[in-house]
Amino acid sequence: MTTKRYVIAALVAAVSAAAAAQQSRAEPEWAKVEEETMRHYQAVLRLDTRNPPGNEHIVAEYVKKVLDAEGIPSQIVGSDMNRPNLIARLKGNGRKRPLLVMGHSDVVTVDDAKWKFPAFSATRDGGYVYGRGTVDDKDNLTAALMTMLMLKRLNVPLDRDVIFVSESGEEGSTGVGIGYLVRDHFPEIDAEYCLAEGGGVTRIGGEVKYATVQTLEKIPRGIELVAHGISGHGSVPLKSNAIVHLAGAVARVGEWRPEIRFNETTGTYFRKLAAISPPEVAKYYRDVLSTDAKTRKAADDWLFENEPRHSSMLRTSVSPNIFAGGYRSNVIPSEAKATLDVRALPDENPAKFLEEVKRVVNDPAVDVRFTGQNERPAGPDARLDSEAFKALEAAATRVYNTTTLPTMSTGATDMAQLRSKGVQCFGIGPATDMEDGPKGFGAHSDQERLLESELHRFVRFNWDVISNLARAK
Amino acid sequence: MTRVPRSARPPVAQPFRPADGRTGSPKGLRYGRLTIVAAAALAIARLSAQHAAPDWKTIEDETLRHYQAVLRLDTSNPPGNERLVADYVKGVFDTAGIPAEIFALDANRPNVVARLKGTGAKRPLLIMGHSDVVTVDAAKWKHPPFSATREDGYVYARGTIDDKDNLTAGLMTMLLLKRQQLPLDRDVIFLVESGEEGNSNFGIQFMVAQHFAAIDAEFCFAEGGGVTRIGGAPRFATVQATEKIPRGIELVARGISGHGSVPLASNAVVHLAAAVSRIGEWRPDVKFNETTGTYFRKLAAISPPDVAAHYRDVLSSDAKARAAADDWLFDHEPQHASMLRTSVSPNIVAAGYRSNVIPSEAKATLDVRMLPEEDPAAFLAQVKQVINDPAVEARFSAQNTRPAGVVARTDSEPFKSIEAANTRIYNVPTLPTMSTFATDMAQLRARGVQCFGIGPAVDLEDGPKGFGMHSDQERLLESELHRFVRFNYEVVADLARSK
Description:
The complex is a heterodimer of chains A (about 475) and B (about 500). Chain A has about 475 residues and is α/β, with parallel strands linked by helices. Chain A is built from 15 helices and 21 strands. In chain A, about 35% of the residues lie in helices and about 20% in strands. Chain A has a six-stranded mixed sheet. In chain A, strand 6 and strand 7 form a beta hairpin. Chain B has about 500 residues and is an alpha/beta fold. In chain B, the strands form six sheets. In chain B, strands 2-3-8-4-9-19 form a six-stranded mixed sheet. The radius of gyration of chain B is 26 Å and the shape is globular. Chains A and B meet through strand 13, helix 7, helix 11, strand 14 and strand 15 of A and strand 13, helix 7, helix 11, strand 14 and strand 15 of B.
């Protein structure tokens, strides 16, 4: 495929020397900023960028206009006219390598009938804004945009460039988004650090309890099981029945929990989590770190039953999600297939893991192989002793008065591609109520929402972190 | 329209020829003086009729003509279009003066019922042959599937052994009985039914539900048995005396839906897989009935000693010997393993739609073939016990089922007659069988008709070589078609003729 690239606006490279001289420690006028934040937030929420088909060009064009009005150089680049990405840059003095901030412009699809408020209405109700994308990811997009605008308006002198990327296709079509950018525009987005979705602040009972920063993510790898047998009439059961062989394999793999292994991120996460959790739960977080196999196993069992997300953080996880075979009730099919969703720890050796799966399947009638599925590459984790992590920790203390836990996400993000190029990435996000997810107000839900107050607090957090990391010192 | 030559007819049978299906009065009875003479003539006529056999050589031409004619009518089901065959058969009967009626739920898919009247001393005998055939993949056929090409002693076509052979033999038997003017103790009914291959609602179900009086009988003959040739020589005959009852069971596992990056203990796919695995590895208890017991005993008697040992052992009261024989059969002769029990085969699984989403539901379909004496409710309870998982529901599917019914007895008159004909014509022993699949006889058995599955001789080697039923080179030896017509006629005549 030939890559169609188009550049709507050229980068304006010059940075006003006068602006640089005008050293300012001024803080934004937050009351005014809030109005503007809400205006942009609602505007982008009202642009229907459900993916598929995406149509992210409407968000790219909106953001470009806002940046143009502010005099911030930006360009729209893409391999698909309807699905471009936006890149903006505020130049620094180059003493440090750039900082990249990202927010993706597409959203997952909606079932319109299920929405109380129309999914693209961005209705304000009871202190919340309701709409597809409110917490995934037009919150990060808006906060990054606002940060760019404020840095420019306040003429903040910078030790490093601040790059803002609004990428398309994050929800399942990274080929047009981060994949394309890393392949065809990497020099324009290359950075020392990057900030994107993937973390946040957890509120329980309306109160902030802790912040999480994603410093690492698991690598998705599909594994396919294919059983072959003799076809025949259903009135005569056959020992080689492909469905029976596959069922045995899927059952064994489904009941298998690969070995527990910690890394710097997950070890720190569970230790810190234990420190801030009620004693009866803290016990499990501590026990799972224990060197005593029995203690560890009991905690692992408890987590699998009660906190499956934590259980997945402990290991390369395997979830058999598709199982299909047969077409007529009276015909034994000759083939049956299952697909395992594997989320590998970043340090997992794929070939060795596949061997382990084969050993668990333990049936020569069942083939075990990696699927050709689009993979996100592995990369180094963001360091907890880095300047960026410290800035994030400090901002969480200042803005939320809470402790910061590094996390490894079990799902893949657009940061994977950047990490594989050596960029240290950190996942951040606004504060949401832990109760919102189970109540059906979470990301991808039919009542996706965000508290207005938390949107504004998140803009402040962004400003705090970014100005702290980039400001000339 | 080949006619039986006059010389072949019984000389004094003329006055007794049934007209319009009714027995005519012998003229001689009107004259007192001639009564004794007439009575004597009658006695001689009967005696002669019993011994006058049809002229088989001449009949073969006619058989092949009808056989090829019906094979050339494309009644692939779906859509069926069995009207083509019904019209043809009706035409043949009309010409022969045999009353025949059409019964149809769908004008394109009619059934034909022809009847030769008997004295009514005994209840009727029903012969059946279905007019539809399974579909074809025309590209795979060497000879076009509806060409009925004759080659090297075979006829090749869809339907040659399923079931236009039985249809042709039934048709010929009716024509011969009529021409032979055989006095009958019972009516002989011939039913050509549509929709056997998966749409019995147009065929046997419709006939049993709406027109049972037209086909009600003491005994019936239909497809389902045959003579097995090995190395070109007939070895044994089988008569299907009973059949298993198909009952679908559906397994539904339910769990919490979620993202594939976070495995859940409630994963519906995993629960279903474990259930299917347990069910697939389970072999329900071995249980014999009169038919299968006799079958394995007789089979042991005619089999080579190494194989016979397994047939005998599976009947053993020693659990260990029985289990070993059962294992051997499951590995080497799965058809026999299925005859020993209510069988279960998981044939469909469907779960999940995206590799990164744990689905909230997963389904599997089990193909269950129950022994006729099985208690469905008790069996379902056993299935649940084997699954042993509250997250997996097990229930009978709503699928159209065939009812259970009477078993055809091996000590019955028809069985003995079939046995005798097999000895006479094929010189082989007769084994009663229970088919593991359902046939159109199920509906009749449910109404109390004793049904027997019969068929022509085919080579055991033909199936594995790809010449069997439903295959792309379905075929029958011409010589065996003719032998089967003779077998049909002799068995039917023996059971129906006045004695």
